[in-house]
Design brief:
Arc Repressor Mutant, subunit A, two-stranded antiparallel sheet
Length: 124
């Protein structure tokens, strides 16, 4: 059974903003859309978007300049990369590897699948 992303919406929104930072759509020290603008663009309640921004602000990925809005922190891509590596190398990798071992995926098959995946991705 394949699971869909069942994380709370505000967590998914925070991840989307991080993705945009990693893809350089949102540059370091540049202003990002306001909570309200982001809520409208994602068709969610502003309170939900605000929770996403709170997560990112607490983690140091964005910061608020009172009256001006939210901005991407300097070194945000490095922070995001570090946080995602910690998550990936923790519980996510255990679940992933336990699942592929059950279906007998070999290291060579895994390498080939990853190479194929990289070949289909746009270069950031």
């Amino acid at each position: 059974m394949i699971q869909t992303d069942n994380r709370p919406i505000y967590v998914r929104l925070a991840d989307q903003i991080c993705d945009r930072i990693m893809m350089r759509e949102y540059q370091e020290l540049a202003r990002i859309p306001s909570v309200r603008e982001y809520a409208v663009s994602q068709q969610v309640n502003p309170a939900t978007a605000a929770r996403a921004f709170e997560i990112l602000e607490r983690s140091g990925v964005i910061f608020n300049k009172r009256g001006l809005g939210f901005f991407v922190a300097q070194d945000a891509p490095a922070m995001i990369r570090r946080m995602r590596m910690e998550t990936l190398l923790g519980e996510e990798s255990k679940l992933f590897f336990s699942r592929i071992s059950v279906i007998s995926v070999t290291p060579d098959q895994l390498r080939d699948m990853y190479s194929n995946f990289l070949g289909t991705q746009k270069n950031p």
